[in-house]
C-alpha cells in the first residue's frame, strides 16, 4: 500500500468568509491517517478567495472520498474540488 498526495480547492460561501477560520477548522476535520502538507489562500476574482489544501493519505479505497466529505462539512465551505492527485 502506497501513499497518495492530493490537492483540494475549498471555495467559501462568499467574499466575507474568514479564510483563517476555515483553515483552522480544516486541521480539526481531517480523518486519522491523513497528513496535512500545507494550506494556501489563493485569490480567485472580485475579492473571492479559495483555500488550497494539500494532504497525504494512504492509497486505500474510500479514503479520498471520506476526506472530501469531511472537508465539505467545514463551516462556510461552499464546495470542495480535487485539483491534483498523485502517487508518492
Structural account:
The protein has 88 residues and is an alpha+beta fold. The protein has one domain: Alpha-Beta Plaits (2-Layer Sandwich). The chain has two helices and four strands; from the N terminus they run βαββαβ. The chain has a four-stranded antiparallel β-sheet, with helices on one face. Strand 2 and strand 3 form a beta hairpin. The longest helix has 11 residues. The model has no long low-confidence stretch (mean pLDDT 95).
Across the major sheet, the strand order is 2-3-1-4
What value does the Rg take, in angstroms? 13 Å
Average pLDDT level? 95
Full CATH superfamily name: Ribosomal protein S6/Translation elongation factor EF1B
Distance between the termini: 11 Å
Any descriptors?
88 residues; alpha+beta; Alpha-Beta Plaits; four-stranded antiparallel sheet; 2 helices; elongated
Q: Short summary of the structure?
A:
The chain has 2 helices and 4 strands; from the N terminus they run E-H-E-E-H-E. By secondary structure, the chain is an alpha+beta fold. It has a single domain, classed as Ribosomal protein S6/Translation elongation factor EF1B (Alpha-Beta Plaits, 2-Layer Sandwich), CATH 3.30.70.60.
Amino acid at each position: 500500500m502506497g501513499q497518495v498526495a492530493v490537492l483540494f480547492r475549498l471555495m467559501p460561501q462568499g467574499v466575507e468568509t474568514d479564510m483563517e477560520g476555515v483553515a483552522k477548522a480544516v486541521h480539526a476535520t481531517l480523518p486519522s491517517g491523513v497528513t496535512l502538507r500545507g494550506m494556501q489562500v489563493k485569490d480567485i476574482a472580485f475579492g473571492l478567495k479559495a483555500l488550497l489544501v494539500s494532504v497525504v493519505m494512504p492509497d486505500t479505497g474510500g479514503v479520498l472520498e471520506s476526506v472530501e466529505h469531511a472537508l465539505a462539512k467545514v463551516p462556510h465551505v461552499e464546495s470542495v474540488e480535487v485539483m491534483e492527485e498523485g502517487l508518492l
